[in-house]
Amino acid sequence: MHAPPRLRRLRRLCTLIFHGALNRYGKQVWLIAWRSWQAVARNRAAIIGKIVPSLFFACVLGAIYSNVGRDQKSIQDKIGALFFFTINQVHWV
User: Fold this and answer.
1) Per-residue pLDDT of the chain (93 residues; tens, 9 = 90+)
2) Angle at 47 (CA atoms; ends 41, 52), nearest 5 degrees
């Protein structure tokens, strides 16, 4: 008796993942990611240069928006804070 088509597709996909081309592709991505991580981890100045400004701006923006209430104006202030946090994180990447 044959397996249903859905099960056959699943078996074929599993075969590709564990034994075929997708496994090789995944291994390549893993090796590139590992090499990139090693390059970043070796450069302490770059790590400190990214962490310190992020912590500084997090403290400043946290202090500015720490006493925000729950009314409509405060919700708009929270949206503004989220905007600044997002811009800060994207800027330092």
Assistant:
1) 566 777 777 777 667 666 665 567 777 887 888 888 888 888 888 888 888 888 888 888 788 778 777 787 777 778 887 887 788 777 755
2) 160
